[in-house]
Amino acid sequence: MPTPDPPPYTITPAILSLVAEVAGEVGRLHALAGTITTPQLRRKSRIRTVHASLEIENNTLSIDQVTAVLDGKRVLGAPAEVQEVRNAFAAYEAMPSWNPTSAKDLLAAHKLMLHGLADDAGKFRRGSVGIARGKQVVHLAPPAGRVPGLVKNLLAWLKRTDAHPLVAGSIFHYEIEFIHPFADGNGRMGRLWQSLVLSRWQSLFAWLPVETVIRDRQAAYYEVLGACDKAGNSTAFIEFMLFSLATALREAGTDQVSDQVNDQVAALLRALGDKTLSAAECMKRLKMSHRPTFRTNYLHPAMHAGLVEMTIPEKPNSRLQKYRATIAGAAALRS
What homologous superfamily does CATH list for 13-259? Predict the structure, then answer.
């Protein structure tokens, strides 16, 4: 099989710096209890992802309405917009089952994303398409006859490339927008597939609502796409997406801390400070006398969240056991 032509891009010092920054934020989020682990936080992140990705495409439902739709409640809104929400949620939920280098899976994802909204859902476009901003055409996509070959080449490159997943995912996202393989839903598919590529590197990216950052910088998102079209490469878009990923990771870390640090856990962290204390010493500082309440409501939640650790973890019931804040716990206390 011939080697696929690589998409044009250049690795700049800014890209290298941003890759390191994103990797650092991933490590920091892992330190805050592993990943985005709680079901509540995962659902919150998924809802934010769906809402933001659709808002970019001019869906007018509020995040409360999106939440209501996904809770099975009736919502006063355009039927097509309600269907978009259901489809997008189903697509992100199905994401772990897809192979990011499979054309069959790409088409299946598009069929799910556009179910009930387009007759050609799950099929490459058959006609010409351009992107207009106002009265000006800002992008004329390649002819429909070239689409299957361009997508096949792109997927083959993605399968063989040794580019870092952070870079490869951004390139794929841009190239999908450039090729515009579908009559509708290209933006949603580009963002979904980048999340899929990244989730195969670090699973937390399956839940990271980077779409919220893109929505907040929507004008810049379209500007950098246009700039890359003119430049003939995706370098600027890679930089844009890496910055967006770093921002989304920082926001996710803040959300995770607030989700895990309830009043009791926060009180225990304040009681510990930078000290190493026994359970009895912690209870004394908290002015508590009922040991089961202390363990159930304070100590166990803090340890489960990765914010407090034992000094003798191999002997949890040791009479010499003491507790201290982890690096993540100290960071949560400062936030």
Answer: Fido-like domain (1.10.3290.10)
- For the chain, what are the domain ranges? 13-259, 261-334
Distance separating alpha carbons of residues 223 and 237, to the nearest angstrom: 10
Asked if residues 79 and 60 have their Cβ atoms less than 8 Å apart, the reply is no
Which residue, among 302, 301, 272, 297, has the nearest Cα to 284 in the 3D structure? 272
If you search the block for the tokens 């039927």, which residue do you land on? 79
* 3 state DSSP class of 323: strand
Is 54 buried (19+), middle (13-18) or exposed (0-12) by CB count in 10 A? buried
Contact 197, 169 (CB under 8 A): yes
**DSSP symbol at 124:** -
Name the band, by pLDDT with cuts 50, 70 and 90, for residue 128. confident
Taking alpha carbons only, the member of 236, 288, 246, 239 closest to residue 267 is 288
Per-residue pLDDT tens for 298-308?
898 888 777 89
* Amino acid symbol at 112: L
Backbone angles phi, psi at 21, to 5 degrees: -65, -45
250 to 43, 52, 253, 277: CA distances (angstroms) = 18, 17, 5, 31
Q: In whole angstroms, what is the distance from residue 51 CA to residue 53 CA?
A: 6
CATH architecture of 261-334: Orthogonal Bundle (1.10)
Whether pLDDT at 255 is above 70: no
Element (H, E) at 86: helix 79-94
